[in-house]
User: Fold this.
Amino acid sequence: MRNGIYTMLKRHQQLLFISLAVLEIFLPSIMAGVCFVDDVQMFKELLHVREWNLKGIFSPTGGIYFRPLLALSFILDREIWLLNERIMHFENVVFHLLNIAIVYNLALQLLSENEREDSYSPLIAALCFCLHPINTESVNWISGRSDVMAGTFVLLSALYLVKFKMGYKRRFLLFSLLSLILGVLTKEVAMAFIPAAFFIIVARDSNTSVAKTHNNKTNIKPLMAACLLLAILTVLASLYFVARHHILSSTTSSSLGKTINAISSDPSNSLFVCLRAFGFYMKKLFAPLPLDFTIREVDPLYELFALPVLLLCLFIAIKRTLLSALFTASILLITPSLLIAFGNIAWMPYAERYVYVSSAFIIIPSVFYIREKAASLTSRTTIKACVPALIILMSVITLERNIYWMKTTAPYDKVKVLVEK
Assistant:
């Protein structure tokens, strides 16, 4: 009992340490003003909303996006905080903190009971995610809340799915489904997690012994559960696209039609566009520098880089472990950004924020892989020295990036004239 209490306190202390580190490093973000890219236009539209109701928010009436939960969060910012930019920045940081806590608990679930007391893998995974330089754009940009907010629901869906997989109550399968629905209502790219859920459910539990400690009577056969979940999600996805019919058939959404036409008219070129974008984002996840808010073109050499990386991803996917399933989830969550690379859907064909959620799913298996390799070494001194050095380096880069973002924004009262026009 004493060991259990000690472990609980130690875990809580680790989360407290992470929270304080995030608040300190993202303090420039909280103190920042309004970004002239999208934020000013968004504030203008919010100020011009005279009346609103939930039915109107959840009814697709126009525009290329259908993100009712995101829209609701901004409406509440207007009603409660009067569009105070610092509070809105702080909300982004809070969502990031929630995601960090979920990443921590997700990594904790993958440990056996014996490893949970003294393993630092959850702490390292959470720190790498919260300090990853590629995630600064989503947290610093008020309009980028779609990524951090959708990330909360997608990560929750993954956590509940893993809990169900470990032998917990069947209700976690329902919680996972509800969380994913909320994620889709925040940002449509969350639908890329639907096939990822299949990989998680059918994965073997060979990399953990946690499932053995729970009552097997609560389990559903993995294949049956996977088919049931996929059937439900497929129906919901169909209903979602039907609900967006008015949007997809409007002139404002012709960009999606242009992308589909581009793919169908020139499949070979489309393949290279997707490979180039995939190689670019995979490189960014492991080597994020240089960071840039406006990325219009990337080097065609990424197409060559993408081929061996894609083969490696396929090799990892067929291993069918929980860790490989999480890695595969990361790859699947990148796929929506490949469509954006055609330059018709979003104003910027490439962006670091597109892989915010994906970074969480690729960091956890990477940390466990390094941990496994380190355990087989006779001397772990190098690994023990490299991990703190890497975290410190990431902290410095992220802090510098946050300061940069702060300098490129303006206080709300200075842009109010632009907003009220």
The mean pLDDT is 82. The first strand starts at residue 34 and ends at 35.
